[in-house]
Structure formats: C-alpha cells, structure tokens
Design brief:
The protein is mostly helical. It is built from three helices and no strands. The protein has helices spanning 14-29, 34-50, 56-73. The longest helix has 18 residues, at 56-73. It is flat and about 55 Å long.
Length: 84
C-alpha cells in the first residue's frame, strides 16, 4: 500500500481534521499537556501520508478544515449570558 495512489476520493483528510480539532480543543482545556496533544495529532497526520491513503494536499486541506471547524465552533460563536 505504501507508495500507491489512493483508490478512492479522499479529499480532505477527515483524520487530519479531527486530529487538529482535538489538539486545539484539548490544548485549551489542558494547556500543560499541549505538546502531547500536538505530538499525537502530528503522528496521526504523518501516518496518513506514510500509509499512502492521502496525498499531501488532502492532509493540508484536512488541517485547514479542522482549524476552520474549531474556529467557527468556538471563537466565532456568540456567547450569550446565562439566564437564571
């Protein structure tokens, strides 16, 4: 499988997107463990390339999708005051 072209469409990489969203979210919750979260995300992303199931552009797009999803789910979402 290594070195072969992917047989099915795989744009963008869902694994890369999920890894980035997870690393971003968990890094905010537990900042001291940030390096571990990003190391795991990097291993997941690298594994997609190593195994040959994604092209580099698939993985790059997955990273961008992950960042965009995190942004729109957290930063761009309006916060409403709690009502009692």
């Amino acid at each position: 499988m290594v070195g072969e072209a992917p047989a099915t469409p795989s744009f963008p990489s869902g694994h890369a997107a999920t890894a980035v969203v997870g690393a971003l979210g968990l890094s905010l919750a537990w900042p001291r463990r940030r390096a571990a979260f990003w190391a795991i995300a990097a291993l997941i992303i690298a594994s997609r390339l190593y195994l040959g199931v994604h092209y580099p552009i698939d993985v790059a797009a997955g990273v961008l999708v992950g960042v965009a999803c995190w942004y729109f789910a957290t930063v761009a979402t309006p916060r409403y005051p709690a009502t009692s």
